[in-house]
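the two lines:
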Amino acid sequence: MIGPSGAGKTSLLRSVAGLERHCTGQIALNGVPWLDSTRRINLIPERRRVGYLPQDYGLFPHMTVAGNIRFASKLDRPELLEQFGIAHLATARPPSLSGGERQRVALARALARDPHVLLLDEPFSALDAITRRQVRDELADILTRLELPVLLVTHAFEDATALADRIAVIDRGELIQLDTPTQLLAAPANVLVAALTGANVLEGKATSTPTGSSIVLHGGGQLDSTTPASGPVHVAIHPWQLQLTDPSTSRLTDTIVGVHQDGGSRRIRLTRFTIHAPANGQVPLTEGDLVGLGALPEHVHVLERPQ
Amino acid sequence: MNAAATRGPSPDGAPDWVAAIGRAAVAVGLVAVTAIVLAFLLLPIVALFTYQPVHELIDGFGTKVATDAILVSLKTNAIAFGLMIAFGTPFAYVLARSRFPGRDLVVTVVELPLVMPPAVAGLALLVAFGRLGLLGHTLSALGIDLAFSQAAVVIAIVFVSSPFYLRGAVAAFEAVDESLLDVARTLGAGPVRRMLRVAVPLATGGLGAAAAVAFARGIGEFGATILFAGSFQGTTQTLPLAVYSLFDANLDQAVAIGVLLIIVSAAILFVSKLLGRSWTSSKSTSPSPAARSPFAPR
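prediction for all of em together
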């Protein structure tokens, strides 16, 4: 689940865990109802068998690693400690652990309860950038091995694509789109989805053409799309689908504000767009240069703009 | 004052040395005020300790009145303390974790004995539990007569001291990271296990500090006890009551008991400060929500 702050992602996760009182609706797992307000069913969290990891993992700081796991299963679970590579930490206390170790301990503890679903709330929010990537890759490995349904909340699309088969975009308590990462990129349902996936979003006015539509952007410039549309619209284009062209022949031009080296590619900031270009591009790019822009019509997403 | 102002005449035209004398006067004044405050607080204590030769002071600890009072104080305070912890801890936990209409009212009721004059508290207990009081008939029908008994001392101590514990315990429980208790629930822990295994261990420092303050208040309890329980040597005469009753008869002995009380109170204060410090330095790993007073309006 991704969405802006305050969209209700955490509330939804907590509702599944049974931690939010006063829920209405239906929640069921494998046909077993956990919540059904019409039938007055509302299982308490103790009886729902969820593996819930809050934002900072919620390890009990006053118990050892082994103690944390025993809290969940009332047994020592050496095989879990072994499986998560934390056997050597059994007597350590959570405050002395690294971010990655904490995550492993928290997952081991959640699994010690034999949950039917894993609920992960922003598992990387407390981590620095380097640890974050490590921990995410580690989590991806663990999750594929587990074969458990997992509901994961994040605000970063990058994390969602790295971990999820399907992504739900949520805004102000409503489900906007539920799709595979590829589909979300290929066909964002609205401006918010497009923005969350990292697209450039601009306003414009569309006119119908035989092959779709042609959009005149506010602030000048023109783009073609395969989507039929007319009237005021939003246009969304992902940074990696914009190409630099010769400004003298291009129907869309913009000025470079900054160029950032980002691994194997260059992130080029323009006044109205961000684009990704290969690092070994022939054209030397400097601030203040006027460049032409182009995109394949199928990569230009046209979204309705409510007036 | 900046460097430029100390050189050359100050803006109002007064020469340097005037300003220097002014600063010196302020410094001397501050030292004097500090000395006066410390002397004022310390002098009575010094006076108590030096009122009689040390051997007489120690003899005073051993008199019958003193040993009786020590035993009564120890017994009643131990029982009161046990009751306070046993009932107060779950109560504070529930109060800290729940939000309900009228919560502020409950909090006010809990706090009331803190601001109630002790004599009024004793009077209130008397008209509630005394023979002619609200529950008097019921109690005497059951063959129980509380007033002027050792049980009355315990009741007076609990009534007057436990608000100090409750207030601190609610704050300590509120400071426990709520998400840890949520996680405990999802791991299958019921309310009792959540409280005993998660909340209490994480709040130990705060609970201990609050209990120490309450205990000190209980040891020193005077007004409510003398009205509700009377002052009978060997049954209801606690240390503070002994001080009062010896005041006319034997000032030396009264002073000796006073010294004893001061030593006990100072020790408790010291322990509570230690507990309070270990509490703030060993909080949970996650940034806890800013400490807020449990009794602040929300």
